[in-house]
Design goal:
It is a multi-pass membrane protein. There is one protein chain. The protein is of the alpha+beta class. The chain is 60% helix and 9% strand. It has eleven helices and four strands, in the order E-E-H-H-H-H-E-H-H-H-E-H-H-H-H. Strands 1-2-4-3 form a four-stranded antiparallel sheet. A hairpin with a 5-residue loop joins strand 1 and strand 2. Helix 1 packs antiparallel against helix 2 and helix 3 runs antiparallel to helix 5.
């Protein structure tokens, strides 16, 4: 799976898994299945109200199109109000972000939505698929124009294994000051670290690292995320038999 590597100003490195082509296609299919169901429901409601039986077809068409407007704007509105996700993306655990890994703006969501007319609908998706395959950051034309991409937000198993891995007998404690921590402290540190990593929020990681530096009174010569990981391991190794 292709990755998007980000080095933040605070020297915290994150790697995003770019969403696979298959997951993007399935998310798109789910979203447009929802839109189709909505359009059918609206048609049924308009029929039940008898608007198709009026002598003014323009009125009928106008009412029908007005009620369909939410479906027309669905991708743009969902991504804007749900942090880069539509229902399809939520199910497939993907989201739209800037290529620097931060949250996209309303303008960027709008640009990629407008461009979908060209790279998805006018060419039956061929241009969008070709662009996703060919570009470094798996971007369709709309993503290139908006400077965005789509990432996978499935739980990082490597992180999970790091946090809960069984520590070997040969492990050496780097920061004996972890003796100052309680079980509650250690669990809170682990939970905050997981949350920051899963959200790809380096501000959380940096704040936690700074708090630990102050609490333990140490000067780690390593990146913030490495320091936190070592502190967690040190604590669980120190109190492994308790």
């Amino acid at each position: 799976m292709h990755k998007l590597s980000i080095n933040t100003p605070q020297n915290v490195k994150f790697e995003y898994n770019l969403a696979s082509l298959g997951s993007r296609i399935i998310a798109f299919a789910i979203d447009y299945f929802i839109i189709t169901c909505y359009a059918i429901m609206v048609y049924y409601m308009v029929s039940r109200l008898g608007l198709f039986n009026t002598s003014d077809p323009w009125l009928t068409t106008g009412v029908y199109m007005l009620i369909l407007l939410p479906a027309f704007f669905y991708p743009f509105l969902m991504e804007t109000f749900f942090n880069g996700q539509t229902i399809g993306k939520m199910i497939m655990r993907t989201k739209v972000v800037k290529v620097d890994g931060t949250r996209a703006s309303v303008y960027q969501y709008f640009i990629r939505w407008i461009c979908s007319i060209v790279d998805i609908f006018l060419c039956a998706g061929a241009l969008g698929i070709s662009s996703i395959i060919a570009t470094k950051h798996a971007q369709r034309i709309g993503d290139i124009a908006a400077d965005t991409t789509v990432i996978s937000i499935k739980q990082n198993m490597a992180l999970q294994q790091t946090l809960f891995a069984e520590i070997t007998q040969e492990y050496t404690v780097t920061f004996p000051q972890v003796m100052r921590l309680s079980d509650k402290d250690a669990n809170t540190i682990k939970d905050i670290y997981k949350k920051g990593y899963e959200r790809k929020d380096y501000n959380i990681i940096l704040a936690l690292s700074n708090k630990l530096v102050e609490l333990l009174d140490v000067k780690p010569q390593m990146r913030p995320e490495e320091f936190i990981d070592v502190v967690i391991k040190d604590y669980y190794y120190t109190f492994r038999d308790r």
